[in-house]
Fold Transmembrane protein.
Amino acid sequence: MVAVMRNALHRLLRSGVVHVLFAFLAMGSWAIFANRAHAMPLPLYAGLVQGAISACLTLFLKSVIDWLSKRFVGSARFWAPPLIACLGSASILVAIHAATGTPEILKTIAFPLLVSTSYAAVYNYSISARRGFDT
């Protein structure tokens, strides 16, 4: 019984759908919290926008890091892909939140950007370290 539960939990944790839903709920909730001082429905709009952006970024971040890590050699392979991913994510977040009227853009994007950049750096390091510096 324990093995069956463990396998089910393992499959659930590897599911892309679960990751996307978690990103939507976690980062959307953060955006609602970051904008709580403003009149409704602005915090809800910010939450929906941030949740949708985070879900989409979660879908594409791994693929982007995989693609970028193959285009750099030497030590640049370790720092360039996460930096490019961070700058791209920040640009997307600021542009969409500005276009949708999110009142607290910097507060809204700070935590999601920290999480996505940390993931990008750790994931990129894990795949780049396996290849070494010169290949």
Remarks:
- The chain is about 85% helix and 0% strand.
